[in-house]
Model the fold of this input.
Amino acid sequence: MKDFWRAPLRGVIFLVAITGSTLAQDRTTSPLEPTPVSPERIAVGDVADDEQIARRLTAILQSTSWFESVAVDVRDGVVFLDGLTDSPEHLAWAEQLAQRTEDVVAVVNRMTVLERAWWDFSPALAELRLLRAKIIRSLPLIVFSVFILFLSWWGTKAVARLARTSFEGRYGSALMVAIVARLVALPIFLIGLYIVLQVAGLTSLALTLLGGTGLMGVVIGFAFRDIAENLLASILLSLRRPFRPNDLIEVTGQIGIVQRMNTRCTVLMTMDGNHVQIPNATIFKNTIINYTANPNRRSDFVVGIGYDDSITAAQELIAQMLSEHPAVLNDPEPMVLVEVLGASTVNLRIYYWFDASRYGLAKLKSSLQRLTKRKLTDANISMPDEAREVVFPQGVPINMAPPPTGSTSAVSPSIPTPDPAPPAPPPDQENYAEEPVSMDAEGHLHSEAREVQEQAATAPTPEEGEDLLR
Done:
């Protein structure tokens, strides 16, 4: 019964011993050094004596340069190993080497593993020497790769230049010409890069890069969403061109003259001389008012006259003044309309058209309101304020006459009814002629755009880069 279990038990012990030895070897293998492999059997001759075995093992151990102070002693087939080594792997390798030598009965391994000091840089130096050797062997390949990359870069520039010249007349946008030229030239560089990776044996890396382009594009799109949005908006704005350089536009409440547009924003110079940078995505998604697209512009102002004055006469006087003003256009014809019957005045709204490229809005409105006031004043047409006011030019007389005979009422003053206002005299043309159309204080009515442009020419531009509007 004991013999029945002895054989299987020996087999299990043998398997466990082999598995443990294998796991120990796997754990002690260093990733920085190659795993030493011992030959199956080493022959030393037909009849191996102790001295031959010692000489053979000593020569092999010394040739590896893994051991120091190597001493091999063989007595009746028993090998005694002495010396120093730098790793447990080399120690186990020497023992296996001695065991597989012919006519060796047993091995006594008395070698010592040296512990490396923390200042020992020999592994790093060994890796550097290995890297230097690899670089020297790969030097022809590196030179060829650099040549291919330079050739592909030169070809890309040449194709982009040719494409830019070809598409410059078809697209009015400089940005679109640049983008189309780069898209046409990009395959040249990609082909050169693929050839370099193929020659270097990095085909899998090339396929990985090509396959991961979509995923990287998604990641970059989320990370740089605002930048991509502004870039796309700049492309669409450069194609549609809702405004041009030096146009007076209004976007999101900002009014200014367009200075430049890059891939991020559009720069405006406000009428106050300030630079305003508006992101292109904001401009594209909001309402754009271009005051320069049509030079003719309409404006208006309100004037109130008294209830006792003739509305028709006031309208004719203001219309005559508008028709005689050199800055007001006769086509479309100006209008003087009754807007509202207020508490104390009849409000007239005056509409007029003018050339905004030549005249300033604020200056012209000042001139027209000044002339309107003079015209109505000369015609004795009142312009009262909001409080109702009754004027008695002759004063308020008090009648102290006694009451009629037989009346017992007390004496009370009587307030006479004021005399009706005299008819309005005809307009004083001579006085009106003395009123100048424009004054030095009003800046002579010319547009402020020229002054703002002069300020912009001398001011530094806050946003650098290629101007996409040129």
Notes: The first strand starts at residue 67 and ends at 75. The CA atoms of residues 336 and 350 lie 5 Å apart. The chain has four domains: 21-113, 122-222, 244-293+449-470, 296-386+425-438. The mean pLDDT is 77.
